[in-house]
Amino acid sequence: MAVPKRKHSRARRDKRRSIVSRLSAPAFSVCSKCNSLKVPHRVCKTCGFYKGREVIAVKEA
Known about the structure:
It is a single chain. By secondary structure, the chain is α+β, with helices and mostly antiparallel strands. It is about 15% helix and about 15% strand. A two-stranded antiparallel sheet has the order 1-2. A two-stranded antiparallel ribbon has the order 3-4. Strand 1 (about 30) and strand 2 (about 35-40) form a beta hairpin.
């Protein structure tokens, strides 16, 4: 089994373990019907449209 020659510093160890470096911001696209932000490849929660056709009926508030 390989044994390290030198001890890794706490900063180097903690940088490797940090999840912050692996996170990315969620992507958003604009709905072509109502121009609100939505998650790509999903039905728009505001208007209920997907790819130019109504998929779900949304109640008007």
